[in-house]
Amino acid sequence: MMKLGDLAQRAGEWLRGTGPMHDVVISTRIRLARNLADMPFLSRCSVKQQEDLELRLRRKILDAGIAEEMLYVDIANADDMDRKLLVERHLISRQHADADHPRGVAVSSDETVAIMVNEEDHLRIQALRSGLELSEAFTQINRVDDLLEDRLAYAFDSHYGYLTACPTNVGTGLRISVMLHLPALKMTGEIEKAFRAARDMRLAIRGLYGEGTEATGDFFQLSNQTTLGKSEEQFGEDFRALVPKFIQYERQARQSLMTRRAIAVEDKVVRALALLRSARLISSEETMYLLSLVRLGTHVGLVGDVQIETINELFLATQPSHLQRILGRDLSGPLRAEARAEYIRRRLHTS
Amino acid sequence: MLAARRSTGIKCDNCDKQATVHVTEIHDGQKVEKHLCEDCAATEGITIKADVPISQLLEDFILQTASSQGGDEELACEVCGLTFSEFRERGVLGCPNDYNAFGERLELLMSRAQQGATEHVGKVPRHSGGDQKRLNAVLRLRAQLRGAIAAEDYERAADLRDQIKEVEEG
User: In this structure, what are the phi and psi dihedrals at residue B13, rounded to the nearest 5 degrees?
Assistant: First the structure.
C-alpha cells in the first residue's frame, strides 16, 4: 500500500517539468465538478450526511478500477503537515485542507489523478500532467468520470448540465488550468500583451499562489472563466489556440533578451544561482524568486551545470511541509530557513 | 518580486486611486515596497485583473433586483429549504433542485456569470442520457452551424445541416 510519506520523496507528476513545451508550460490540469443526484450539496448536508457521503464516495472511488494503485487520505483525520503537503503538491485545494468537516482525497500512485471528496462539490475530479498535454488529460479525466458515473447517479439537468454547488461551475463543471513560466515577458514588460490575448479569448490569467496567499513572481495560471454554453472540446480548443501564442511570445522575449540584454540577464541568473549556492538562511518566497531566474537561465543556455529536473524538484522540495518531510524533522520558521538553505546548497553542489 | 498582498487604506503610488495591491520586491537584497491600484498593478504585470468574483456578481444582482422588483417576496426551495436570500449571502446553493426552485432569478445571475450562456451543450452522463444526448448533439451542432454561417463557410454549414437532420431523425 502506497503511503502519503512516499510522496514527499519524489517530484510529483505535475512538477517533473519534462513534458511537452516544458520550457514555458509547467503543467496542465483539468478538473470536473460532480455532485450526487440524491443528496443535498455539501453545505446543506448534516454532519451525518457528510460522513455517509465521504464513506460512500471513498468506497466507490477505490472500487472503480481507476488506477492500479490508489492512495486515499482521510483529510479530517490527517495531521496538519500531511494536509499542507497535499496542498503544496496541488493535489488538494487550500480550502479542502483547512475545512473541518468529513472529507478526503484519492490519489493515483503516479499522481496523474486526484479526486477530492466533499470539497465545495461532492466530487472534484482532477487530471494532472506535466507540460502541455491537454488531449491526454482530457482522455484520462473522461475515463475516470465514466467509471465513477457507472457507479453513481450524478446530479444532471437537461438544460443546465452537471449541477454544482456554485452556479459559476454549472454545465460542464470543467476547469482547465495551464500553468506557465513567463519570466522573460515579465522582464521585458510585455506581459500585458499576453494578458490582452487571454482577455480577448475570455480566459482568466492569474499569478500562481505560493505559501501564503501571495503571488510569486513569474508563474501564471491560465484558466477558463465560464463552464456553460460550450462543450468540453470547445473549451479545450480555446486553450489549443491560445497557449501556443503564449509559448511563442515568451520564447521571442527570451531571444530578444539574449540578443539585446544578454549581460544583464546573465548577471541576474548567475547572481541568483550564486545566492542559492551560498545562502545560509532563505525563505521559500526568495527561493521561488531565485529558482525562477535559474530556470530561465537553464533554458537560454546560461546555466550549464544544473539539470532542469533539479530546479523543478527544488521548487517543490523547498516548500515548508516538503522540506520537513524530506528531512524527517519538524522545523519552526527560523530553523526551516536554515535547513532550506543547507538543503539547496547540497542539491546544487552535488548535481 | 517577492510577494504581493491585498488590503485597503493607502493611495496608489502611480495615480490617485486606492491601492489594493501591496508588493514587496527584493532588489539586490534591498526591500522595496510598492502600493498600487488594481489597474497600475495589472499594467506593471504584478497582478492580473481577476474575473469578477461571485460575491460581486451577487452584490450587483441584489442592487438590480431591489430596484426592478420593488417587493421582496421570498423564494425558497421545497426540497432543501434554502431561501434565495440565504443563497445571496453565501454564494452556494443547497441542493440540485435549487436550480428549478430559484428559476429566472438564478438564471439571470447565471447568465451574467457565464457570459450570456444559459444552456449546457457538453457531456451527458451515459446512464441518465438517452434522448438528452441526442438533444445536446443537436444543440451543439446548431451552435457550430451559427458559427459557420457567421464565418460565411457555407460548405461547412451545409454539412452541419445534414448532420443535424441525421441526429434529429436518428
Answer: -65, -30
- Split at pLDDT 50, 70, 90, the class of B168 is confident
Q: Looking at the structure, do residues B39 and B67 belong to the same domain, yes or no? A: no
Q: Is residue B118 part of a domain?
A: no
> What pTM value is reported for the model?
0.79
Do B10 and B33 reside in the same domain of the chain? yes
B65 and B26 assigned to the same domain: no
Statement to judge: residues B60 and B28 lie in one domain = no
Per the CB < 8 Å rule, is A153 touching B128? yes
**How far is B73 from B71, CA to CA, in rounded Å?**
6
pLDDT score at A201: 85
Residue B61 lies in a domain: yes
Residue B121 lies in a domain: no
Grid cell digits, residue A275:
545566492
Note whether A34 and A145 are within 8 A (CB): yes
Burial class (CB in 10 A: 0-12, 13-18, 19+), A307: exposed
Contact A172 B43 (CB under 8 A): no
Of B50, B99, B127, the CB nearest to A149: B127
Pairwise CA distance, residues A105 & A118, whole Å: 9
Interface residue A264 vs chain B (CB under 8 A): no
**Which set of grid coordinates corresponds to residue A314?**
527544488
User: Any chain A CB within 8 A of the CB of B60?
Assistant: no
Q: Is residue B49 part of a domain?
A: no
Tens digits of residue pLDDT in B101-115: 898 899 988 888 898
Report strand pairing: A174-181 vs A215-224.
antiparallel
Query: ipTM for the complex?
Result: 0.86
Residues B135 and B86 in one domain: no
Give me the number of domains chain B comprises. 3
Closest CA of chain B from A78, distance in Å = 27
pLDDT level of residue B40 (50, 70, 90 thresholds): confident
Report how far Cα B78 is from the mean position of its chain's Cα atoms: 26
Q: Which of residues 123-152 of A touch B (CB under 8 A)?
A: 142, 145-146, 149-150
* Domain residue limits at B9: 2-43
Grouped pLDDT means (10 residues each) for chain A, 351 residues: 66 67 93 93 93 97 94 94 91 94 95 96 96 95 97 91 95 96 91 86 76 60 94 95 94 96 95 96 92 94 89 90 92 92 90 40
Same domain, B58 and B107: yes
